[in-house]
Amino acid sequence: KLPSMKSYRETDGKFYFKLEAGDGTLLLQSRAFDAPKDAGILSAALVDAGDDATAVSGLLLQCTSPDGLAPSTGAIVAALAALKADKLAKQSQKSAGARGSGYSGDAFRG
User: Fold this and answer.
1) How far apart are CA 21 and CA 1, in angstroms?
2) What is the C-alpha end-to-end distance of the chain, expressed in Å?
3) CA–CA separation, 110 vs 96, rounded Å?
4) Stated pTM of the model
5) pLDDT for 64-92, tens place per residue?
6) How far apart are CA 19 and CA 83, in angstroms?
7) Strand ranges across the sheet with 4-9
């Protein structure tokens, strides 16, 4: 089962996201955000960073509370890499379907 990234609003009115492993283990809990867009931008950036441990480490500093402990990146990077691969596969399937509707692959040869 794939890991999951979930965004939600708590009773404090703030927005959060969390990353869970495929088995439901909590890997990352974000700090509070005032706007859902801010939480969404950062969670999307984490997925896009995927298997780039350096980029993920930098992003983790932005999504954890300043007084909290930095999470261990190994399992987080592995989960984000799986989410990124799934996202890219879906985009590839989507674009392949679009090309199948009237697009001629012979029109461009690299």
Assistant:
1) 9
2) 37
3) 17
4) 0.80
5) 866 655 567 889 999 999 999 999 999 88
6) 10
7) 4-9, 15-20, 26-29
pLDDT tens, 30-42?
999 999 999 999 9
Q: Which residue is listed with tokens 């999470």? A: 71
CB proximity list for 5: less than 8 A, separation 6 or greater: 17, 18, 19, 20, 43, 46, 47, 83
d(CA 87, CA 53): 18
Cβ atoms 25, 63 nearer than 8 A: no
Which one, of 25, 23, 21, lies nearest residue 4 by Cα?
21
Q: What Rg do the C-alpha atoms of the chain give, in angstroms?
A: 17
How many Å apart are CA 77 and CA 47, to the nearest integer?
Answer: 9
SS (H, E, C) the chain: CCCEEEEEECCCCCEEEEEECCCCCEEEECCCECCHHHHHHHHHHHHHHCCCHHHHHHHHHHHCCCCCCCCCHHHHHHHHHHHHHHHHHHHHHHHHHHHCCCCCHHHCCC
